Amino acid sequence: MSSNETKDKKSIIRQKLTERQSEAKVVRKIVFITTIVLILIIGGIAGGGYLYINSAIKPVDPENNTVKPVEIPIGSSVTGIAQALEDNGIIKDARVFKYYVKLKNESGFMAGTYDMKPSMTLDEIIGSLKTGSVMDEVVFQMTIPEGKQLEQIAGIIGEKIGQEGDAVFEQLNDQAFIESLMAKYPNLLTDEILGENVLYPLEGYLFPATYPFYKEDPTVEEIVTVMLDKTNAVINEYTGEMDAQEMTVHELLTMASLIEEEATEQVDRESISSVFYNRMETGMPLQTDPTVLYAHGEHLDRVLYEHLEIDSPYNTYQNTGLTPGPIANAGVSSIEAALYPAETEYLYFLATGTGEVLFSTTLDEHNQKKAEHITIQ
């Protein structure tokens, strides 16, 4: 190969390298510019989203104190409530309100016609919805204590609306009435309440609370709907934990009712719960006296050995596991105890005359405490 050919070849190679370097610079420049543009676009979207959400959680108009009546119908979901608030100009965005409520784990909103203002903050709106601070005046209030059974609740309802408790109790157990409620609350009132051995389908499902009413003569259905709204709101707070434990609403309310009926004000409900779970794990019957009383369906001053012989699926001296359904309504403390029992090895507990509850791991220890604290008359 001649020297001229060699020079020409080197020149061509050098030219190609130069062209490639130039192309690489262009590509790097394009990539750099594209990256910057994408960052700006994403940043703009994120920034815009942040600004929008930040604006949406603030009052619609901090200076506007114009009163607007906002009606929240019975049985409204958070989505429905949010939309009603947006439609009336009380909040800026129903979706933001809904996610704000979910983020703060708020629930227990009450139906009614509310006195709202565009100047209200989201927390003020939520507080009003939870406390039932409405525009209408309360005509009467109805208090349902913890540990009440369905027949007792029927009597309380009847007294408030001028009806016989027996008539109210009959309606609460009417098949068509129950089925209509099941259709309205499919996640709360499942087919389990119609189990073969369940004595009263709504037993344990009417939440203990004080309920305000805004008209003179609400129907039994209206009253029960308000109560089931409350139960539904409370239970919804624990759906994640129930799913994790593979526990149904019926099982949760049943266990909670047993804890409620055994508990005293001084007692550690989580420890009672642990006794029940420990017994079920070992195949022992729960042997809790309130189930015997429930099976007899009448007040007994004291549970005697002869009472333990009653043939009933609710008798936990003769049957293992939970009762077919709740035996009373339970408050939040008992519901949480049913979900979060203490970690113990207790298999026995004993309530003393002073209200104290003593726990034991063995039968000998339990019998010794009985001898020390229980006087047989």
Describe this structure in words.
By secondary structure, the chain is mainly alpha-helical. It has 3 domains: 68-131, Dna Ligase, domain 1 (2-Layer Sandwich), CATH 3.30.1490; 141-236, no CATH class; 259-373, no CATH class. Helices cover 51% and strands 7% of the residues. It contains 14 helices and 6 strands. The protein has helices spanning 3-56, 78-87, 94-103, 122-131, 150-161, 165-172, 175-184, 220-236, 239-244, 249-262, 269-282, 289-296, 332-339, 363-373, and strands at residues 68-72, 112-116, 140-143, 210-213, 348-351, 357-360. The strands form 3 sheets. It has a two-stranded antiparallel ribbon. β5 and β6 form a beta hairpin. The termini are far apart. The model has no long low-confidence stretch (mean pLDDT 85). One of its GO terms (molecular function) is lytic endotransglycosylase activity. The chain crosses the membrane at residues 30-53. Belongs to the transglycosylase MltG family. Pfam families: YceG. Its EC number is 4.2.2.29.
Helices and strands, with pairings:
Layout: H1 3-56, E1 68-72, H2 78-87, H3 94-103, E2 112-116, H4 122-131, E3 140-143, H5 150-161, H6 165-172, H7 175-184, E4 210-213, H8 220-236, H9 239-244, H10 249-262, H11 269-282, H12 289-296, H13 332-339, E5 348-351, E6 357-360, H14 363-373
Antiparallel strand pairs: 1-2, 3-4, 5-6
